[in-house]
Amino acid sequence: MKKEIKISDYDIEAVMGRLLITGVIISGTLILIGGIYYLIQHGFSIPHFKTFRGEPSNLRSVSQIMEGVIHFDSLSIIQMGLLLLIATPVARVIFAVIGFFIEKDFLYVAISLIVLGIIAYSIFSVAAA
Q1: Predicted pLDDT of residue 110
Q2: Does residue 75 contact residue 59 with C-beta atoms inside 8 Å?
Q3: Mind listing the pLDDT tens digit for each residue in 53-98?
Q4: Does the pLDDT at position 10 exceed 90?
Q5: Phi, psi of 99, rounded to the nearest 5 degrees
Q6: CA spacing 20 to 30 A to 107: which of 33, 57, 97, 123?
Q7: Full DSSP string of 42-110
Q8: Which residues fall within 8 angstroms of residue 80, CB to CB, at 6 or more apart?
């Protein structure tokens, strides 16, 4: 006999809520730690606002950011927190697709996949530019 697992809408919403809260708390903590560490390292340096300097090249790819986090680079830690902050709602949409699929609510699976496609297109089209 196959035992069916019953998952309610409330269970899915509770897990998605915890996912969002946890993602925001972890990303905020990383950004705060990186910011404090940055101020400890560079807090007394004088900023040059007349010269525009773009994002350093070591903060433009996930692998380089991870390498910087491993080496305790403060800007990499801040950037990792920002990446996690962006990834949190993406993970929520992925979880929604899975939850709606388990509930066999295929209309919402399709809508969630469309939203996920729009998010992926916007992220990767900006990255390619």
Answers
A1: 96
A2: yes
A3: 878 888 888 899 999 999 999 999 999 999 999 999 899 999 889 8
A4: no
A5: -65, -45
A6: 123
A7: HTTSPP-TTS-----GGGSSHHHHHHHHHTT-HHHHHHHHHHHHHHHHHHHHHHHHHHHHHTT-HHHHH
A8: 30, 34, 65, 66, 69
CB neighbourhood size of 13 (10 A) = 12
The domain locations on the chain are 11-40+58-128
> What's the confidence (pLDDT) of residue 45?
85
Which of helix, strand or coil describes residue 129? coil
User: Six-digit token pair at 17?
Assistant: 């809520």
CA 30 to CA 66: how far, in whole Å? 13
